[in-house]
Amino acid sequence: MTAVAPTPSPRAVNLGPAAELISKEEGHRQPLAPEFVSPHDFSPLEVAYDFGRVRREDIESGPRNIWRYKKLLPVPTTVEQTPNTEPGCTRLVRADRLAKALGVRRLWVKDDTGNPTHSFKDRVVAVALAAAREFGFDTLACPSTGNLANAVAAAAARAGWRSVVLIPSSLERAKVLTTAVYDGALLAVDGNYDDVNRLATQLAAEHESWAFVNVNVRPYYSEGSKTLAFEVAEQLGWRLPEQIVVPIASGSQLTKVDKGFRELGELGLVEASPYRVFGAQATGCSPVSSAYRDGHDVVQPVRPDTIARSLAIGNPADGPYVLDTVRRTGGAIQDVTDDEVVEGIRLLARTEGIFTETAGGVTVATAKKLIESGSIDPDAETVLLITGDGLKTLDALGDRVGPKATVPPSVDAVQSALDD
Amino acid sequence: MTAVAPTPSPRAVNLGPAAELISKEEGHRQPLAPEFVSPHDFSPLEVAYDFGRVRREDIESGPRNIWRYKKLLPVPTTVEQTPNTEPGCTRLVRADRLAKALGVRRLWVKDDTGNPTHSFKDRVVAVALAAAREFGFDTLACPSTGNLANAVAAAAARAGWRSVVLIPSSLERAKVLTTAVYDGALLAVDGNYDDVNRLATQLAAEHESWAFVNVNVRPYYSEGSKTLAFEVAEQLGWRLPEQIVVPIASGSQLTKVDKGFRELGELGLVEASPYRVFGAQATGCSPVSSAYRDGHDVVQPVRPDTIARSLAIGNPADGPYVLDTVRRTGGAIQDVTDDEVVEGIRLLARTEGIFTETAGGVTVATAKKLIESGSIDPDAETVLLITGDGLKTLDALGDRVGPKATVPPSVDAVQSALDD
């Protein structure tokens, strides 16, 4: 008989309403822990809740950031008392000029560029940090090529934690600077993003005190995207929109927006009115869109080739769940070329004064295509999720925008340049 | 006898509580109009108000942007109903880690990078647009090298107005793109910023329908900076801070923050407790700091040479008024070298996860210097105004930040890089 070390009983954690982890495929339940794959069916683990009663007043009297929704998130009840980046409560902009350009009646843009590091990643990282603190980690880590690296390094700095951020050594200098400035441990790895990702998984297994936000604390991290749904509903006056367009990278965000809407309905915080979820991809990395078009349930991995790098995940973990969500709600998925992405960026800037990164260009251009094909109902209210900032993907504009003219410093020269 | 055309009576404008324009030097009063210099004493014109009663509830029940303060601004009473960029309500961050690094007890950072185009300029431009609309203009214009150009082009796009933005033709490509994307009339002018500025003044005189935000509608525009003071006070729970550090470019912002605090006290919205206003400049453009140090009342123009370009105004229009404000409130003015600016940027990023442009580096570094010299009381509560975003001045970081190491994709290599 072999001596077996006793399994330590799970540490009693205070993660607010979070009750258990549950496997997405077969619903196996297990205690809250920093784990991400079910040992029973090998499917992703997701947070299950015991919400109790949540009232609108509880939320409305909370802080002007995502912690107003703490009773709906896997975070300690005292979460707002510990330093974190406090993202959220970004603008929901009524977009009448874009609506007119697209030929729809009521359109809103959720502008998540207003977050601390200017992308929705601040939401998920803030939740990951709060949960990681509770689990006893002391280092916040991630593999990333952009927005996530910024968000992790900033959140760790604010909290006084160490960060370890792994990037491919070929990353452009501007993207290196915007993470390095926070002075964590930024490591350039000789290899492509797949190599970096694999290394992150190895390191997560090796280092017990490192919380890799999108690996070992991923179930908590991904719940942060629900706050996009919560805010949209609250900003609409506590109701759900009829249609929403969400970009797809791993697919997590789209499924969590859906989860957020459902939770609000189940808790009676909004009327559980029907809504349709639409997914947006760049054609150069459109495995979920292809599967949707072909009527498949599984997603065939691809090798990404698109300017929309923040969406360039060739083997999206939540792809099948995205297909489920979109089909269940009566939505659709579509993809757009890089040229259309740039036109989407320009259209949003020209009509609403919002400058988005390439991912937002994907969302706008896909919405346009879905409207033209009749998939999106032009008479139903629609929300577009704009999840990142144009300042981070300037290169995508290439030579397509620039001054109208170069003139000598004279009134007449200005006049004739404008008359041209 | 010469036939004289009758002077048109001033158009009855609805600019809310704004009653008249008043000259800053001798107090000459004149009706509200798109004018910026008094014909009587040639001093700048400023908005005078007839506030009536304003209650905290009026503000608290307003929108989550600067229009919640519409009863304190020169804007129509219906201002929130017309498309504009809706800036403001940015975070006031309790900065305990920065406080510790600086050796002070209670410190707050007002993080204005959360605005639509990521600088405080969105505030002043939004007010300028609202007033310009009321005066019957149809084009929003400015000379600029950076933040102002972004804000004007974005606000005009959102409103469906034409914009005319004049930039020096030598401007870096990244800064050109971030304005050009909004698709207004962006004109590159062969000349330096002084040439561009002069041209703007000529064009403002020539084109009756062009509102140059910082020229002919400057009295309205500059009032937008009061909203920084209003928000700080409201976010502190309706009270004034004891000390505030404000960067100085033209000096307008500093004087308007003071004006905002005074108005809140006069209206009984806060207790009129004493506060001290401190000014921050880069040594390479420090005419106001020099005048303060030398005990002068006038400001000697300089030729700017600093990386803090958004503060590089060599002949600051409001310099004398800044000196008045700082001396009246018991504050001080100090300046810092470009090296200190970069260290200021890095210190804020490292301690609070906030990445500011060079102007914010000036503010942090100047605060540090004022604390070390004893000018700022370390036991009194202090607010730092961070007015722009690090993504816009990446070049300033030069080679000072970067990855800790470049490693092969192996766990051991990561470990030894971190151990170094």
From TrEMBL, chains A, B:
Its cofactor is pyridoxal 5'-phosphate. Residues 87-388 form the Tryptophan synthase beta chain-like PALP domain. One of its GO terms (biological process) is isoleucine biosynthetic process. One of its GO terms (molecular function) is L-serine ammonia-lyase activity. It holds the Pfam family PALP. Keywords: Lyase, Pyridoxal phosphate. InterPro entries: Ser/Thr_Dehydratase (IPR050147), Thr_synthase-like (IPR004450), TrpB-like_PALP (IPR001926), TrpB-like_PALP_sf (IPR036052). It comes from the Bacteria. The modification N6-(pyridoxal phosphate)lysine is found at residue 121. SUPFAM superfamilies: Tryptophan synthase beta subunit-like PLP-dependent enzymes. Its EC number is 4.2.3.1. PANTHER family: L-THREONINE DEHYDRATASE CATABOLIC TDCB, THREONINE DEHYDRATASE, MITOCHONDRIAL-RELATED. Belongs to the threonine synthase family. NCBIfam families: thrC. This is Threonine synthase.
